[in-house]
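Weekly modeling sync, notes
Attendees: AB, CL, MP (scribe)

Item 1: holo prediction request
CL wants a bound-state model with zinc ion before deciding which constructs to order. AB pointed out that an apo prediction alone won't tell us much about the pocket. Agreed to run with the ligand included and paste results into these notes for async review.

Input as submitted:
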Amino acid sequence: MDRARITIFDTTLRDGEQSPGCSMNVQEKLRLAQQLDRLGVDVIEAGFPIASDGDFQAVQKIAASVRRPIIAGLARACTGDVDRAWQALQGAAHPRIHVFLATSDIHLKYKLRITREQCLERARDAVRHAKSLCADVEFSPEDATRTDVPFLCQVVEAVIAAGATTVNIPDTVGYTMPEEYGQLIRTLREKVAGIDKVTISTHCHNDLGLAVANSLAGVQNGARQVECTINGIGERAGNASLEEVVMAMRVRPDHYAFETGVASEQIFAASQMLAEITRVPVQPNKAITGRNAFAHEAGIHQDGMLKNPLTYEIMTPQSVGVPDSRLVLGKHSGRHALALRCEQLGHQFERRELDEVYRRFVVIADRIKKVQDSHLLELIQDVTNDNGAGQKFPPAATPRPFPRAAAAGAGANSADLHPAQVSGIAGQAKMTIPFSDHHSEQEDYLWGV
Ligand SMILES: [Zn+2]
């Protein structure tokens, strides 16, 4: 079967970041952008440069250091926005200006207070201006799914003539149904002159839980780019979830003759990193990345799984990077295994930082025997915070006083400690034993997932 390549456009750092409680600082955005790069997304929408200085800086920093993917900056359809976006994108290896303007009557009348003619003109002018700066220009008619279809066709035709290379069709309010959305994409392909020269993109919101279904319907009807976010975060009920779109195509290649460039084994790390940065946990039953997504509790399921995983498993946890729960940390491989586990949780450390993580880990592992991911993430957070505060880690060879926490902890049954409590332990362990002083009991700690 000939497989069409779908462009994965990640907007976790722009649309995702707009969701309540999900704002990120420049450093955090850069970290996540690096993980998105490892994940293999094609486009990273890094921010909305005119919205704030922080957003501008984030786009600028990401453009300068993440070189493989296309880096997009969002702009309203006006010269100031487009210029600001272009300024932020200067250092990008592959820049894209993403211009948007609402086209539905309700938005034109109440939000923008302009006529359809003015809308058409504004869209055309902004795209023309963007094109004079940057070869790669995307246009989004906001609220496209509630826009009068003939008018939508007119706008799309005008922006293509003005130089747009990607036309994105947002279901901004999460209103549409899969069949309707698919039909809309098909209509655009049939009616709009020049549409075969550009990439059609989907951008679906999840207000009715249909964002992924709508995106896939769009792809089946000719869209070749999907806009999505890690963990499906985004305005209100969120965007289409990247991991669900990608894995639907991967698990059902018989149904979807498409492929993406995503390294699915990096999905879990990206999901965990986002949850840790935003402190917004993943819903336990979230498809692909929730902690129960691969858990089998019912007896009959467990029995089937033991006989043959295919009885209840349509994809392996390893295929999306969920760590092997049987990973054992040993005395000699300890640091290496810990580094691997950190990486699987979305954290890569330099030698000095890893030393510090390891030191604190040993103290915790001595006490609670079974170190959960949540414990480890708390510990990593502590180390990252200390580092960010400019404190220098002690050199690995410098002896430190033996910590009270470790000395007093023997015998405590703390396997079920709340992460916050463990964080306390981690905190006490900050000025702790040198690397060579730890005990041998850590050889056989089992990791829980
Ligand atoms: Zn959106």
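Recorded for review: The pocket of zinc ion is lined by residues 15, 170, 172, 203, 205, 234-235, 239 (CB under 6 Å).
Action items: CL to compare against the apo run; MP to circulate these notes.
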